[in-house]
Amino acid sequence: MPTKFRPCIDLHDGKVKQIVGGSLRDDGAGLRENFVSDESAASFAARYQADGLFGGHVIKLGQGNDEAAREALAAFPGGLHIGGGINADNATQWLEAGASHVIVTSWLFDADGRFLDDRLETLKRRVGAERLVLDLSCRRTASGWTVAMNRWQTLTDLHVTPEILDRLAGSCAEFLIHAADVEGLCGGIDADLVALLGGWGKIPMTYAGGVATMDDVLKVEHASGGKLDLTVGSALDIFGGRGVCYTDLVLWNQRPEQA
């Protein structure tokens, strides 16, 4: 299947925002906001439903976002994934609230960034691999790409390699990968990461980070061989951007080869 557009709703302090990913901190210091919407999360969700855009994600960036997230899921039941603070205790609640899948990262690691296989097994038993998305959002490091947790502040011991993807693929339905170093900068995609992921390409994956124009959308499709879907954030006109038109992406998904 060719690359398709997956929409997003990023929530911070209960509002739909676009944020430079690398600027997120626990104390809020240095936060760089590209966009803050006057529209509710539910209105974005309803728009995505009306345009047939399934499989997008709602991400809760910190505290104070649960109410807005629940409203978005209620507006598009079964159409959105939910991430941010997901663990074995609350995952089922979010599925019951209308999410099609739950997205998890930080809970799968200890405080020092060591991956905990037993937690993944627990979550898989609780919700089923078919409703679980693993967020492998990462930063470029000397060894390639390293998964980052805690709003991308903390590097973990998990590296994005074909071997790791093989190891984890049987425990989830999809991978979500933000290229944290370029997220929110509208400066172009991480083409090397896209090529690595596309070269593996064994289960559905969504890439996010750096898309500035429709040319970048084409680059993701070509570099990944159509194996990666993608999310567009700060460049999108509905998020105050000037590089990519939302209606163009809706039409992109309606291409005959997408049927």
TrEMBL record:
The record ties this protein, via InterPro entries, to: Aldolase_TIM (IPR013785), His6/HISN3 (IPR011858), His_biosynth (IPR006062), Isoase_HisA-like (IPR044524), RibuloseP-bd_barrel (IPR011060)
Please name the CDD domains in this protein's record. Answer: HisA_HisF
An example Gene Ontology biological process: L-tryptophan biosynthetic process
Gene encoding the protein: hisA
Q: Which domain of life is it from?
A: Bacteria
Quote the Pfam families the UniProt record gives. His_biosynth
The record's annotation in NCBIfam families points to: hisA_euk
Which species expresses this protein natively? Rariglobus hedericola
The name under which this protein is listed is Phosphoribosylformimino-5-aminoimidazole carboxamide ribotide isomerase
Q: So what family is this one in?
A: Belongs to the HisA/HisF family.
Kindly list the organism's lineage: Bacteria, Pseudomonadati, Verrucomicrobiota, Opitutia, Opitutales
Q: In which pathway does it act?
A: Amino-acid biosynthesis
